[in-house]
Design goal:
The protein is an alpha+beta fold. It contains 15 helices and 23 strands.
Length: 697
């Protein structure tokens, strides 16, 4: 716990508040020249520069102080205490000083009361423990005096004394053994197992059991191999003639009295222990410290033997600040020490101190808020105008502020500022609208340029492929036409021969196949003129399903159709879309085994088109074939790529080009061993009026 006095803490709080107020309300001001800057002396204009050290807004002083009361120009820059700051500071001081004095008095008084209470409690506990220990020792002395005065012990007959001593030991349960020594110093009787009498005699001899002529109490010790510390109580045995005939010793165990001494109710940190004159622990709650550690080097030891102020904290043997009291046990060299940690003893004072600190801070905040409200009636409107001046062209003027409705000069300034703000805002809105229109036009132009560029690139590509296709057609079709004409000319001559007719059919089919391949290549290479019309997608899908059904039946497959009734209109070329869908269906049939399932589904969905969401139609063509390996999924839409022995690799690229020309996309998903699904997304027609619906194809 900090030893700083409470009033010092409160003074530091006041200093901190003063600094905050100074930095916030008395900001550093540059010297501002006043309007009284030129005076005439003897008819000659002389510059008399005077500085107005007043709060300013954008370089204009709020209060025009005459030059006569300004600071000289050669003075260093200083803070100016405005009226608002002075009122706030005085109000805070008047509100806080009495509270600080009361808080300081409460804390110091509470600390004194706690010191007195804790000290008195510790002293009472020490006195109680010392009294208990003294009474217990007196009882042991009385026991020995009683035993020594009995006729049994005075007879000095071991056979008679042994049962009696055993009875005393068993009855009181505090004696480890009782020993009687004769006048010559030899052990006459010991109340222990007779088999170990010799060993016990040697052990007791080491404990210096000698003939005593008066009551005697030894120091506490712990013999080797014993689990309990003990001490000796001795009383003289007098014969019938009054002479000293022996001494009876009682070896007293400390287990029972230790529990009584250690049992204290002083919170969580309170403890009581017993030390001897050298500071060695005789009784302690930690058995490892008994007869091994001492407190001779700690302030606890000095607290026992030196007079000091009651209630003054000190460091104990652990190095922890404690409150303590000690008392000597009468008739011994033992001392009872009772201690409690200062932190726990002063816990209530710490709580009170925190409550007072919190109350002071709360009062400080309340006083600050009240003075702020009181002074902001004048300063807030000016700050409001200053804030809006910086971004007058970006934000509209807030007319909800009360300054507009005021009738004083600030209200006039507000209304003028409002009018100026409206004009600037109107111009800003006009400029923003103009810029927005220009930006929209530029974006539209950029889109048109991008579209034109794509069309030019595509036209160039198709033109090159068209030229190549024309060359291929010229080189292949001429001999192919000759072959076809030759075969047609000999058709009548080979009739009647089955082998010749079969060869003729094979040759003619191969020629037609070559012509179809050339035509397909030319269709891919040469752009076709598209005829866009509103299409009824439900009718188109039903027609496609009807056209593909014979081929499905030939392949012995099943056809499943799921075509929604609410499909929107799509603007497109009916023939090209039909060819694209037929192409996908034929490809699906070719990769399926017999008894497979061909699926056709169509529904209204939303999909991503060039980074934006669009509404349209989704068409799914699914099969139950072997599927497409993942390493081939990125290549299936490339021209001339095919996995079929008889394919040209142009079917899917034609489908992609057709769908792309209609503003849609084609996606494929496949699971090896489960089949493939091709999804065609087409955007709906932008103009879906009644006329469009009625004219759908």
């Amino acid at each position: 716990m900090s030893t700083q006095r409470p009033y010092c803490v409160f003074l530091n709080i006041i200093k901190y508040v003063n600094q905050v107020l100074t930095c916030y309300f008395f900001p550093f001001r540059e010297p501002t020249p006043c309007k009284h800057s030129v005076q005439k002396q003897h008819g000659t204009p002389q510059k008399n520069i005077s500085i107005c050290l007043t709060p300013t807004i954008k370089g204009s002083p709020l209060i025009d102080i005459p030059p006569s009361i300004n600071r000289p120009t050669h003075k260093k820059k200083r803070f100016h205490f405005s009226l608002q700051a002075q009122v706030m500071l005085i109000f805070l001081m008047l509100a806080l000083v009495p509270l600080i004095v009361i808080g300081w008095f409460s804390i110091t008084t509470t600390e004194k009361l706690i010191v007195q209470t804790v000290t008195r409690q510790l002293e009472n506990v020490a006195a109680d423990k010392a009294a208990i220990l003294e009474r217990w020792i007196d009882e042991r002395k009385a026991d020995m005096m009683t035993v020594a005065g009995t006729s049994i012990v005075r007879s000095m007959d071991p056979n008679v004394m042994m049962p009696y001593l055993d009875l005393i030991r068993d009855k009181y349960e505090v004696y480890q053994n009782l020993t009687v020594i004769g006048a010559d110093g030899a052990v006459v009787c010991i109340s222990r197992d007779p088999l170990h009498v010799g060993e016990r005699i040697e052990h007791e001899t080491r404990n210096e059991k000698i003939l005593r002529d008066a009551l005697f109490i030894s120091d506490i010790s712990c013999p080797p191999g014993e689990m309990e510390s003990t001490f000796l109580v001795a009383a003289p045995v007098l014969g019938s003639d009054g002479r000293l005939s022996g001494t009876v010793y009682g070896t007293v165990g400390t287990r029972k009295i230790i529990n009584v001494i250690l049992n204290v109710f002083l919170g969580e940190t309170g403890e009581c222990y017993l030390v001897d004159g050298n500071g060695r622990f005789l009784v302690h709650k930690e058995p490892a410290r008994i007869l091994r550690d001492n407190i001779s080097q700690s302030e606890s030891f000095r607290n026992i033997f030196e007079k000091r102020d009651r209630g003054t904290p000190y460091l104990d043997y652990r190095g922890i600040e404690v409150m303590g009291a000690s008392l000597k046990v009468a008739g011994t060299d033992w001392h009872i020490v009772v201690e409690q940690d200062r932190k726990e003893a002063f816990a209530s004072a710490d709580i009170l101190q925190r409550v007072i600190y919190f109350t002071v801070m709360l009062c400080l905040a309340s006083a600050f808020m009240i003075t702020w409200i009181f002074s902001s009636h004048i300063i807030t409107p000016i700050r409001f105008l200053s804030k809006h001046t910086a971004n007058i062209g970006d934000l509209p003027f807030d007319r909800r502020d009360g300054g507009v409705r005021r009738k004083d000069e600030i209200g006039i300034l507000y209304r003028a500022f409002d009018e100026m703000s409206q004009k600037i805002q109107a111009r800003q809105n006009h400029l923003r609208e103009t810029v927005g229109q220009k930006e929209a036009a530029l974006r539209q132009t950029g889109l048109m340029l991008h579209k034109t560029k794509r069309m030019a690139e595509r036209s160039e590509k198709f033109a090159a492929m068209g030229r190549m296709g024309a060359a291929v057609a010229h080189e292949i079709r001429t001999p192919l036409t000759s072959l076809k004409l030759f075969l047609e000319s000999v058709q009548d001559q080979i009739r009647g021969s089955e082998d010749d007719e079969e060869d003729y059919g094979i040759a003619m089919r191969q020629i037609l196949r070559i012509e179809a391949t050339i035509n397909r290549f030319l269709d891919f290479a040469r752009p076709r003129e598209l005829i866009f019309l509103p299409l009824d997608m439900k009718r188109l899908m039903m027609d496609v399903a009807l056209m593909i059904r014979p081929m499905v039946n030939r392949h012995q497959c099943a056809l499943e159709t799921r075509i929604a009734d609410d499909l929107p209109l799509v603007r497109g070329d009916r023939m090209l879309l039909t060819e694209a869908l037929i192409n996908l269906l034929v490809n699906a049939l070719e990769v399926m085994p017999e008894e497979g399932t061909l699926g056709i589904a169509a529904e209204q969905v939303r999909f991503e088109e060039e980074g934006r969401a669009a509404k349209g139609v989704r068409i799914d063509i699914s099969d139950t074939g072997a599927g497409i390996p993942k390493d081939q999924m990125d290549k299936i839409f490339e021209p001339f790529y095919t996995t079929k022995a008889s394919g040209t690799g142009l079917g899917l690229p034609l489908v992609v080009n057709t769908v792309r020309d209609h503003g849609g996309v084609v996606r494929a998903t496949s699971e090896p061993g489960q089949g493939t699904t091709f999804s065609v997304f087409l955007p709906e027609a932008e103009d879906e009026g009644e006329n469009g619906k009625n004219s759908a194809h």
